[in-house]
Amino acid sequence: MAKIGRNEPCPCGSGKKYKRCCMSSVGKQHADFVDSIEQMLAMNPDLSMDELNVIAEHQSNKINNTPHQDFCGLTPGQVNNWLYALFSELDGITINTPSDLSTSPVMRYLELMLETALANGGQIKATAKGNLPAALVKEASAFLPEFAVAPFERAISISEFAGANEDKFNALHYSRVLTEIAGIFKLKSNKFHVSAWAKRQYQQSGLESFFPIMLETAVYKYNWGYFDLWEDEIPLQQFWLFMVWRLQHHESHERLVDEMIQAFPDLLTALAGEEFFSEKDKLSLLIESRFIKRFLQFFGFVMVDPRRVIDGKRVAPQVTCLRSMHETFNVSIE
Predict the structure, then answer these.
(1) CB neighbourhood size of 66 (10 A)
(2) 162 by DSSP, 3-state: which?
(3) 41: three-class secondary structure by DSSP
(4) pLDDT tens profile 131-177
(5) Most distant CA pair in the chain: distance in Å?
(6) Residue 67, C-beta contacts closer than 8 angstroms, at least 6 positions apart
(7) Measured between alpha carbons, how far is 160 from 96 in angstroms, rounded to an integer?
(8) Among 266, 230, 202, 304, which Cα is nearest to 21's?
């Protein structure tokens, strides 16, 4: 991948210059590397192109393959891969389909949609607002006690995993949006039609075959800021694998926030502080809402204690990584 110039638009799509957005320690090291090569060339103008290429390759390999404390022991090369590589080209990570999808809200809702559609000629009649029908929403709400999304079942009125209609049922709405982005369902003429390829795949390979598709859609194609009203746009989902790795390691939301700031300090420059929130506070809230709740929890990878005050004291989110998360993400860092 070609080096991104400091003043070029950031590839995350934020509209900001790279140096003001995602130019983390990885980018800075590469920028410094280019500067050092230019200085060497200025001091040794008689170097041939072959000699310069050998020196540049040696310096680049040395930088890219040296573990860095800021990255919790990852090399800049590994971090660069995790930030920019395609889903199928990620280094040091094996992504599997968990053995039991029944505890995954996203996958259970997908299964319900597929079964409902196939029982009705391959389609589901939408409401006037273009949402899933009330009968299906009611069935999906009944799944709540089967999910380990919280240490105790919450009232349906405040749960993200139940509701009287899709508008009040965030996890179901999220799942339905993913199915449309992935091309599994298409809304046409006020009906959700299951795609021919999806119908064929479900009948031949079962629900398990859709897990990689839904996961890839969630981390690469879905807009993580869809549910909230934060004006600050930071490319948080670009760091999804780094966050999965760290949270899986220690299960601490607070440590995760500190590690993100340590590894990618320029994230804070993209956030504007407010009267009651510092830049770090806002980053913490975004990681909690966009990454932990609306990604990991919706997929059934973690259990999150909804309590924020215990014994009169405000506490950070208590996160427990579930079996499905450990089965799905197998990180092997040499």
Answers:
(1) 11
(2) coil
(3) helix
(4) 999 999 999 999 998 898 876 655 555 689 999 999 999 999 999 99
(5) 77
(6) 73, 74, 75
(7) 26
(8) 266
